Structures are given as C-alpha cells and as structure tokens.
C-alpha cells in the first residue's frame, strides 16, 4: 500500500444533502422538517441542557466552592533568552518597547520576565513582575530591574494591646481576732 492507493472506506463519504431543490428531489418544500412545530422553525428546538421537563443535571447538583477567576491578573510572559536575541546591549526593556517590536500583543495586565535562556547583555528592565532566576541572570549580566508594581508588603500584625492599668482595690480592714474570754474557776 502506498499513499496514492489510499481511499476512504466504501460508504464513509456521503454527498452533501441539498435542501429545497424542488419537490421531486425528496427534500423540497419543507426540506425534511415536516409541517409546523418547534423543530420546523429556524433556530428551533429546546436548549442544549433541556431534559424534557425532568429536573436538569445542573440544578440537581449542589452549588459548591468559590471561583476567583474574575480577579485574576494575566501577564505577558517574556524570557530573558528572547530579550538577548532581540534587544541591543544597554537597552531599556519595558512594555512599550516590547509592543513596538511585536513581542507583546493583546490585552494584558502587565509584563512578567522569566529566566529561560542565556543572558550576556546589560538591560534596564521595567516590568511588573520578574521571576527569581530572571532577576539573578539580569543582575549577573550587569543590568538593573525597576519593578513597576512593588512587591506586596506582608500584612502588619497589630501591636499587642497593653492591659489597662488596674485601679488599686480599696483596702479592707483586717478582720479582728476575737478576744479570748478568760475563764474564771
């Protein structure tokens, strides 16, 4: 068997069903949809999750969990190896420069520099995020990094509250000892 001998299996290929080509074609007039009703209309038929009136699966299952996807930040990712190939020694690399060259396209919340590849040129990097390995490579090559978004500071622990000074309790008189009665015998 060679490439020029390969054919689809008999019956695997069908001609396209051509609708509305006259009554004698068998698919004219109503085009195989029958008369009237929901399924005869364009766009007709129930929604994909409809189960014939049975309580649908998405309503039978409990709601669970929490999704924070709306607040996720999406960063354009660039490796230091790519910067080495494209930019000249001593260049300033920021989002505007990356967009001018065409490395960053589309909508992003910022730029993140990652450490894949070798770096020998000095760059001044202005990025929103820089990975640890990228930071090390950039600084070893003699470049410097200016983070646009500063690292989030650790939440400050509230100072321990000093207990309020207690007022001295009023002095109570010492209980008097009962005097011993002298026995007279």
Report on the structure:
Helices cover 15% and strands 12% of the residues. It is flat and about 140 Å long. The strands form two sheets. It has a three-stranded parallel β-sheet with strand order 1-3-5. The protein has a three-stranded parallel β-sheet with strand order 2-4-6. The N and C termini lie far apart (142 Å). It has helices at residues 57-60, 80-86, 95-101, 132-140; strands at 75-79, 92-93, 110-114, 124-127, 129-130, 144-147. It contains four helices and six strands, in the order αβαβαβββαβ. The longest helix is centred in the last third of the chain and has 9 residues, at 132-140. By secondary structure, the chain is largely without helices or strands. The model has no long low-confidence stretch (mean pLDDT 88). The chain has a domain at 72-147: Ribosomal Protein L15, Chain: K, domain 2.
In angstroms, what separates the terminal alpha carbons?
A: 142 Å
Let me know the largest β-sheet.
3 strands, parallel
Number of helices: 4
> What form results from the Cα inertia axes?
flat
What percentage of residues falls in helices of 4 or more residues?
10-25%
The proportion of residues in beta strands is 5-15%
Number of separate strands: 6
CATH architecture of one domain: Ribosomal Protein L15, Chain: K, domain 2
Spatial strand arrangement across the major sheet: 1-3-5
Top-tier CATH class of one domain: Alpha Beta
The CATH topology of one domain corresponds to Ribosomal Protein L15, Chain: K, domain 2
Class by SSE composition: little secondary structure
Oligomer class: single chain
Q: Please give the radius of gyration in angstroms.
A: 40 Å
Residue windows where pLDDT falls under 50 for at least 5 positions: none
- Average pLDDT across residues? 88
